[in-house]
Amino acid sequence: MSKAGRKTTHQAILLVLILGLFGIIVASLIWGRTPATYGIGTAIDGVLQSFGMDRGISWKTQSSIELRLWRVLTTAGVGSALAYAGALLQGTFRNGLAAPSIIGVTAGASLGAALTILFLGGLLPTFSLATGFEVSSFGILLASFAGSFISVGIVVLLASERGRVSIPSLLLTGIAVNACLAGLLSAIHSYALKDYEVSRAIFSWTFGNLDDKNGTHVFLVWAVVLVGSLAIPRLATELDLFAGGEDDARSLGVATGRTKFLAISIAALMAATAVAVAGQIGFVGLVVPHLVRLIFGTSHRQLLPFSIIAGAFFLTAVEFIQGALLKDAAFQPGVMTSLVGGPFFLLLLVRKRGSLRSW
User: Fold this and answer.
1) Residue 61 domain-assigned?
2) 290-315 as b/e: b if 16+ CB within 10 A
């Protein structure tokens, strides 16, 4: 296929993703997780009334639509943040197996969140301004970021030799660090069992939770994604040069240390924000960038921004489909993405057996 033909195909696929995402958002407003079904006109009126425009619909209907709106927009933002983080890490380590959930970023953020919930004594699960939402929300964000940054720093440090990151060591160290963090999380779960509210909040974070969201959650996650995306023009070029190896990139004038620090920091912030808003939702950062790379190619000028869009589509689609099929029996989002992502990860390992032997 010619270059012009590929560009047209990519644009068509991107348009389908955007329209599909918009369609899922509208469908989520109409059906949602509750038995009530609304017409598209009522759904639009509910959205407008949520932003202060009186449309004359009942408080009950408007509240239901508003909850659905904040939920689907938060879901889209979390999917974008995780997919963007995965794309950055895969580009930095030059390997499609790197992801926030695999090298310890997500687990570290979850540990920070769990410790914060434990210390707050159960105030956080209410997510109410009257019970200190702002303080606890930003407290858990900072703790999640600290946890993710420390965990990925440990992984990279232990997997490095003379300033070079070994991919096999990266994966093995990530597994080991994840095991250690899982042990600490289990200890926290065990300790928190005596307090039902704290235990419930921690378990909710462990399996992911997209219920009971509000405008603050939407603003927080999308603001971080938008701020992080400002680095795409600069990082895209440098990560493309990384593909030939750090030595080649360094010879072409790339400050490799600064680039790795910036990319890993932004990835950690994306994962930390996603965990702070919705708990631990794994494998989105592994699956989505890999699929985007297969469709759109390896250039980070396309891979990074398209991963943001595809991540939003992927997580909202998974949540909407399982909600429509399973209704009240629907899994927590972290459980469902693990059911999808686990076999996908095994498939990648099988396909990359030849390259693994050469490492």
Assistant:
1) no
2) bbbbebbeeebbbbbbbbbbbbbbbb
pLDDT of residue 189: 83
Pairing of strands 164-165, 160-161: antiparallel
How many Cβ atoms sit within 10 Å of the Cβ of residue 242? Answer: 23
Contact (CB, 8 A) for 28 and 320: yes
- DSSP annotation of 100: T
3-state class of 161 per DSSP?
Answer: strand
At 54, the amino acid letter reads D
Token duo for residue 329: 């029996």
Range of the domain at 191: 79-358
Tell me, yes or no, whether 84 lies in a domain.
yes
User: What is the distance between the terminal CA atoms of the chain, rounded to a whole angstrom?
Assistant: 33
User: What CATH number does residue 344 fall under?
Assistant: 1.10.3470.10
Q: Is residue 42 part of a domain?
A: no
Residue 218 within any structural domain of the chain: yes
What pTM was estimated for this model as a whole?
0.86
Residues in the chain: 359
Number of domains in the chain: 1
Write out pLDDT tens, residues 281-305: 888 998 999 899 988 888 999 999 9
Stretches where the chain sits below pLDDT 70 are 1-2, 55-56, 121-138, 162-167, 352-359
Whole-number pLDDT of residue 121: 62
72 neighbors 167 (Cβ within 8 angstroms): no
Is the backbone of residue 288 left (phi > 0), alpha (psi -120 to 50) or beta? alpha
pLDDT digits (tens, 9 = 90+) for 203-250: 777 788 888 888 888 999 999 999 999 999 999 999 998 887 777 788
Looking at residue 164, the DSSP 8-state letter turns out to be E
